[in-house]
Design brief:
The protein has about 375 residues and is an all-alpha fold. It is built from 17 helices and two strands. The relative contact order is 0.08.
Length: about 375
């Protein structure tokens, strides 16, 4: 056990214990507040306040956090509940059999049990903590693969989006109101991109429209460009090339407010549509424009996903065109929104190539953190 962990436990302050846990050398690198907060059922801002604020005293929370981090009971200033594993397994087994029998005999009764559950009430006033929760939800959704967007996960995403939209009617300061619309737009765009990835085009269009409305309402031009780029890509994928190019033109209307990476994203999206039309020279021109704004990170992620990129050197030289260049470039674009395994993909959050692999795995055991 490190001196920092020993001192933290001596203070009887769980926030300091969590901080010592996050910064323990056993992990190699410092664990992010957002990651540990997700284990503890907290938001990043809540964990930040917990670590530097007054010592929490609610026993149920202390027990939950200690059990989550696997803090040995003998090191704590409170007692953990004793659990008889054999008896617990037996109770769970009998309970499962009774529940299974109930489902077999009367499937409708389970729905009746939750029929009177009320939806989460919207607070009278929305603040930064509510806005951060929406952004955290969007970031979590963006880390899921398209294959996770079905069934229960899809319902969870829709429920979060519906609740976030209801928050727009709550009171807030002008600044918070603008940030709230931006956060809801971010969430809707991320959910829409997940729907697009699983080919639910109606869902994706509705979510993109909501995201675009929020972005324009709060004058978030960066979010607006990303949403319009996604709308263009969906139109191109479904064969509506004219609407795809129209969305790109709309995004370029405020190009003075966009980053180089975002402008490169729009150029490559336009190149995709031009390639589908067989306009090879125009396609190469757009790729050259993207290259000149020096957004190489975004461009390489986009082109790899489309199957164009091969070898090294200047981007125009990377195109491996067949005898019929127009058909070759168009065919390479037909691979759709899904990406080749192991490659990076364009991320709806920032318009560039982002690694959407899962968060670092949580250590299998935490015992070394608290070892003497």
């Amino acid at each position: 056990m490190t001196d920092q962990m020993h001192d933290a436990l001596a203070t009887w302050h769980m926030g300091r214990v969590i901080y010592a846990y996050r910064t323990h050398p056993y992990h190699g690198n410092l664990l992010a507040q957002e990651l540990v907060a997700s284990w503890l059922g907290l938001s990043q801002s809540q964990l930040s306040r917990l670590e530097v604020g007054t010592a929490p005293e609610q026993l149920s929370k202390l027990i939950h956090w200690a059990e989550t981090l696997e803090v040995p009971g003998e090191l704590l200033w409170f007692k953990l509940p004793k659990r008889n594993v054999d008896a617990l397994d037996d109770v769970n087994r009998h309970g499962f059999l009774r529940a299974a029998a109930a489902v077999t005999l009367a499937p409708g009764t389970l729905l009746e049990l939750i029929a009177d559950l009320r939806s989460t009430p919207v607070p009278a006033t929305v603040g930064q903590e509510d806005i951060e929760e929406i952004r955290t939800a969007a970031r979590q959704i963006s880390s899921w693969d398209a294959g996770n967007g079905r069934g229960l996960v899809r319902e969870a995403v829709l429920a979060q989006l519906r609740y976030a939209v209801r928050l727009l009617d709550a009171n807030a300061t002008p600044r918070d109101k603008a940030e709230l619309r931006s956060a809801v737009g971010f969430l809707s765009h991320t959910a829409g991109f997940m729907a697009f990835d699983r080919y639910d085009h109606e869902d994706a269009r509705a979510m993109f429209d909501l995201a675009l409305g929020c972005a324009e309402e709060c004058r978030d031009w960066n979010l607006r460009a990303k949403v319009l780029s996604s709308m263009a890509r969906q139109s191109i994928w479904t064969g509506d090339l004219d609407n795809g190019l129209k969305s790109v033109r709309m995004a370029f209307e405020r190009s003075d407010r966009l980053t180089a990476t975002e402008r490169a994203m729009l150029h490559t999206t336009k190149a995709r549509a031009l390639a589908k039309q067989g306009r090879v020279q125009d396609t190469l021109l757009e790729i050259g424009r993207a290259h000149r704004v020096r957004a190489r990170r975004c461009l390489v992620g986009e082109l790899r996903g489309c199957g164009w990129c091969s070898g090294r050197g200047p981007l125009p030289q990377r195109l491996d065109l067949a005898a019929d260049p127009a058909q070759d470039v168009s065919d390479r674009c037909d691979r759709g929104p899904r990406r080749q395994p192991g490659l990076r993909r364009e991320c709806p959050r920032d318009g560039g190539a982002a690694d959407l692999s899962p968060d670092p795995d949580r250590p299998q055991t935490q015992l070394r953190v608290f070892a003497a």
